[in-house]
Amino acid sequence: MNILCFGDSNTHGYNPKDTTRFEKNIRWTGILQNLLGEKDYVIEEGLSGRTTVFEDPINEGLCGLNYIVPCLMTHEPVDLLIIMLGTNDTKERFGANADVISLGLTRLIKKVKNTEVAFRNNKPNILIVAPLPIRPEIESVECGATMGKGCSEKSYKLIPLYKKVAEELGCHFFDPSPYAICSEYDYMHLSEEAHKILAYKLYEVINKIREY
């Protein structure tokens, strides 16, 4: 399987401890590749700050909707697309509540489905991963100021909304929040341990999808 992982900084591998990038074998994508072995190909497409559909007025090129088609076509044939987005959509400057963010995900998924030519046998196969909720403690750290008020509350509300989107659009769904939490350094990025947990859980999910 060619597995395309489309996400934000938590797919890119941002290290909240020192703002660098985790090495390949620490990122969940790299661990997942090691677990799957050579028979599968895990493709990393993580970008810090990426949103589902919102244009960031401060940093350009972060709208997932604008890049998803060329991304899919670059890596075709895709057997499974994993989408883990939504954390950045909760930023106060976008003015979007959780329901609106889920509409953004819906629009993104529909665009993916209209690009069926990028998938093997023209059959879109999509796994929506709910982003780990931003912890309320984010208000106590520097990045909390730029994320703005309400980001944590909105992030928790995304989980059931994303599950509903997956059900309505015929996508697979996984919620990692029962197994891991965001780091204690900034309360919104994955720790090294969380990357490992996510990779092992997704390994299980992918094997179930393979049997599906």
Automatic annotation (TrEMBL):
InterPro entries: Ester_Hydrolysis_Enzymes (IPR051532), SGNH_hydro (IPR013830), SGNH_hydro_sf (IPR036514). The keyword Hydrolase applies. It holds the Pfam family Lipase_GDSL_2. Residues 5-197 form the SGNH hydrolase-type esterase domain. It comes from the Bacteria. Signal peptide: none annotated. One of its GO terms (molecular function) is hydrolase activity. The keyword Hydrolase applies. Keywords: Hydrolase. This is SGNH/GDSL hydrolase family protein. It comes from Romboutsia faecis.
